[in-house]
């Protein structure tokens, strides 16, 4: 019998916990009144989702988004972070602990903040301050989680604010907000997630709105709009059934206008949220991973892993324009891709990250992205440091 997605990750982390020297301090659970019951069996992720690790790029949302580093889960289960310097990434440093699944990382005026799921299914956070000091792990109490944590710095909020999302034991999406150094407490947004949670800033009124995307129990994509003035509730986005987590362009100032996912046909599909009624557009291909999107002026690129374990890119001048078809990027990868560009206002260097067969995270650079073939990626260069899990 194939174990469900959430169980495979938990079992892996439990084995690591028994042998690793450094583990997260397992703080006592907070009052159950703030979280769903922990007695129920967690609703599993469906086995049709890609069970691959995804690099978490740290974006500084002050002004034009700038990628400042990348976080991953190490082969020993620890949290690893590599700071970016220009077109390169420094060696991975271990921040310790044993985490389950992929980390989430955001940057604000207080530093680089990491959010992870511990082996006790509690949420933990760790921070690298602007001076370079590491605070160490602390628990965000009140919720037993059954999936990866998603973190975001909303638009037009105090510079130290962070909002996080996680899936509870009831399968619903829960959220917590950090403001002025204090957590507001977990509250349920409802829904029934059968995927990881994807959150992105949007340019809608009110201007601090966050779109939250999940795959529902019926395998359709659902969206919930969250702001300080209220919550819209989850609504389906047309009828396509998807078999991946939902992708947005994280390097865009507001990345929630276009989304992408793998369909039941294993092809790539994209949806334009600026046009109603919502219609999913097929882009074809054979996709074996989650999707990564990079959005720069005049160059929108969708990245997927193909059946031969190489990454493929499909580009257009804009997400709603004609896509030019898939081009193969030489090299074999064993994880989901992550991608970003120099910025949304002018096309610049394209950056592509994915785990390599040897256990390292590879960086591949396209100096001057264009929608016209051929692509100009120079090949994967392993980021030094401990092996990636």
UniProtKB/TrEMBL annotation:
Residues 162-341 form the PLL-like beta propeller domain. It comes from the Bacteria. Residues 1-32 form the signal peptide. Keywords: Signal. Pfam families: DUF8189. This is PLL-like beta propeller domain-containing protein. It comes from Nonomuraea thailandensis. The lineage of its organism: Bacteria, Bacillati, Actinomycetota, Actinomycetes, Streptosporangiales.
């Amino acid at each position: 019998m194939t174990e469900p997605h959430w169980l495979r990750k938990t079992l892996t982390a439990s084995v690591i916990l028994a042998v690793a020297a450094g583990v997260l301090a397992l703080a006592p659970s907070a009052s159950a009144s703030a979280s769903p019951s922990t007695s129920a069996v967690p609703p599993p992720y469906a086995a049709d989702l890609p069970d691959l690790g995804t690099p978490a790029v740290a974006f500084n949302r002050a002004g034009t988004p700038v990628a400042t580093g990348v976080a991953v889960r190490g082969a020993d289960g620890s949290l690893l972070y590599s700071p970016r310097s220009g077109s390169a990434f420094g060696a991975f440093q271990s921040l310790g602990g044993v985490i389950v699944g992929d980390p989430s990382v955001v940057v604000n005026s207080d530093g680089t903040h990491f959010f992870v799921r511990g082996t006790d299914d509690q949420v933990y956070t760790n921070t690298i301050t602007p001076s370079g000091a590491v605070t160490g792990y602390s628990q965000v109490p009140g919720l037993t989680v059954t999936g990866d944590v998603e973190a975001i710095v909303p638009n037009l909020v105090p510079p130290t604010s962070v909002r996080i999302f996680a899936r509870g034991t009831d399968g619903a999406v829960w959220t917590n907000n950090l403001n002025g150094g204090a957590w507001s407490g977990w509250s349920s947004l409802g829904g029934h997630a059968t995927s990881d949670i994807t959150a992105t800033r949007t340019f809608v009124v009110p201007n601090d709105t966050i779109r939250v995307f999940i795959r529902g129990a019926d395998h359709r994509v659902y969206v919930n709009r969250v702001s300080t003035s209220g919550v819209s509730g989850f609504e389906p986005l047309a009828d396509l059934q998807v078999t991946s987590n939902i992708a947005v362009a994280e390097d865009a100032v507001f990345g929630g206008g276009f989304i992408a996912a793998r369909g039941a046909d294993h092809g790539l599909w994209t949806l334009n949220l600026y046009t109603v009624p919502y219609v999913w557009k097929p882009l074809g291909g054979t996709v074996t991973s989650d999707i990564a999107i990079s959005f720069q002026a005049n160059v929108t690129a969708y990245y997927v892993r193909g059946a031969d374990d190489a990454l493929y890119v499909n580009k257009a001048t804009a997400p709603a324009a004609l896509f030019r078809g898939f081009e193969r990027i030489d090299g074999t990868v064993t994880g989901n891709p992550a991608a970003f560009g120099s910025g949304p206002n002018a096309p610049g260097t394209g950056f592509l990250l994915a785990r390599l067969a040897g256990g390292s995270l590879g960086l591949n650079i396209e100096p001057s992205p264009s929608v016209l073939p051929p692509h100009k990626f120079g090949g994967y260069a392993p980021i030094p440091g401990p092996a990636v899990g």
